[in-house]
Amino acid sequence: MTTPGPKPVTVGIDGSSSALDAACWAAAEAVRRNTWLRVVFCDVLAQMYLPDLPTMPPPQTYSEALARQAQVWLHRAKEEAQAAAPAVEVRTFVRTGDAASVLIEESRKAQLMVVGSRGLGGFTGLVVGSVAVALCAHGQCPVAVVRRPATDLRPDAPVVVGLDARDGQELVLTAAFDAAAMRNAPLVVVHTWHEAGSEQAWYSFHAEGRGAAVQAEEERFLAETMAGWGDKYPDVAVRRVVAHSRPARALLEQAEHAQLVVVGARGRGGFTGLLLGSTSQQLVHHAPCPLLVAR
């Protein structure tokens, strides 16, 4: 069987309910992108068996049981995906290798990688450990982390995008506008600023009235950054939010009523270390809607 031409949306699954949520969300996304869905099960346990004797095959019963279980999980994920998006073409695959290496390799031939927020088996700890960080740092396409069932998301809810004060925002804004346009949803653009220093410095900063000046300057920056995007996407309604806040807090507040949050793979300024430090962990653990990392 030949592989379809367009790059697929690829979802990594295991036996967890979170993986099924991810598969359903990925199926709908594949339909939006007019492509097919590639469902991958990562067989890490096969590599973990007798690591000191890598050439010795596992017992036949073990191999057969693992293969049967993988097919059960893949079949269920396929059924759930097709129920969520009947028009989608779904193909299932078993890959052998550690989760990070497999996902990074898969990302080279995908237009979007999708994972759940919690995993079992080959994807255990996918989002909270090194695998998610590796995929975000080294993946070759955007990555989506799905934290809740797609049926819980309002189709008329906005897409939210986090924007910092540095270069390289075109990729993030393009991903966000495309996502909003595909969903016929409004877009909320969030930009934050925060003074650094001690509590005394904070009081001094605001006592001198510099906060209002900074707020005005940041609003001007965002207005200039957004200039021209309305012409590119005339059907997307845009609301700009400039918040005196920490990035994660501002995004989480806006995400409460959103269907998707979009951020860059790395941030500077207000979004420093977005997916490498504390902000990323807060978004991954607490974002009430799917998170899309634009690369």
Task: Detail the topology: elements first, then pairings.
Blueprint: E1 9-13, H1 17-32, E2 37-43, H2 45-48, H3 60-84, E3 90-96, H4 99-107, E4 112-116, H5 130-138, E5 143-146, E6 159-162, H6 169-183, E7 187-193, H7 199-207, H8 210-226, H9 229-232, E8 238-244, H10 247-255, E9 260-264, H11 278-286, E10 291-294
Parallel strand pairs: 1-2, 1-4, 2-3, 4-5, 6-7, 6-9, 7-8, 9-10
Antiparallel strand pairs: 5-10
Helix pairs in contact: 1-3, 4-5, 10-11
Keywords: ATP-binding, Nucleotide-binding
Domain UspA: 7-147, 159-295
Protein name: Universal stress protein
Summarize the structure.
This protein has 295 residues and is α/β, with parallel strands linked by helices. The protein has eleven helices and ten strands. Keywords: ATP-binding, Nucleotide-binding.
What report would you give on this structure?
With 295 residues, this protein is an alpha/beta fold. The protein folds into two domains: 9-148, Rossmann fold (3-Layer(aba) Sandwich); 153-293, Rossmann fold, CATH 3.40.50. Helix content is 43%, strand content 19%. The protein contains eleven helices and ten strands. The chain has helices spanning 17-32, 45-48, 60-84, 99-107, 130-138, 169-183, 199-207, 210-226, 229-232, 247-255, 278-286, and strands at residues 9-13, 37-43, 90-96, 112-116, 143-146, 159-162, 187-193, 238-244, 260-264, 291-294. Strands 3-2-1-4-5-10-9-6-7-8 form a ten-stranded mixed beta sheet, sandwiched between helices. Strand 1, helix 1 (17-32) and strand 2 (37-43) form a beta-alpha-beta unit. Helix 10 runs parallel beside helix 11. The longest helix is centred in the N-terminal third of the chain and has 25 residues, at 60-84. 41% of the residues are buried. Keywords: ATP-binding, Nucleotide-binding. Residues 7-147, 159-295 form the UspA domain. One of its GO terms (molecular function) is ATP binding. It comes from Saccharopolyspora elongata. This is Universal stress protein.
